[in-house]
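Look over this one:
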Amino acid sequence: MNNSNQTITVETTVKAPISKAWQGFTEPQHIMNWSFASEDWHTPEAENDLRVGGKFRTKMAAKDGSMAFDFEGEYTDVINLKKIEYVMGDGRRVSISFEDLGDGVKVSETFDPENTHPVEFQKAGWQAIMDNFKKYTETL
């Protein structure tokens, strides 16, 4: 399966001030509360050096201990309250934009798919994480 010629975009609108949405998305103590695709997974560790050349690492793990992996990358562009771009360890690129709508924030994340899983599966997983981000951030 070769998904190299396309990108996938997921998005949500968070009913919160842009500063709160940015904090929720970028601060490790918040990331650990939403960065998982299903309720049987969690994020026990998160590190984030949010600057160009800075690195991040988020440990995603099954709650039953059967599986875990590190999601990590290096930032290539950071514009406070507007945009985050990074490259993952396998070379795939991700771009996240934050658009202040006045009564909320539209967060869009576009990424290069990997070649193991179908595009729809990847989109569903990343959208589930984005939905968790929205739910968590709106209760901050």
About this structure: Residues 119-137 form the longest helix (19 residues).
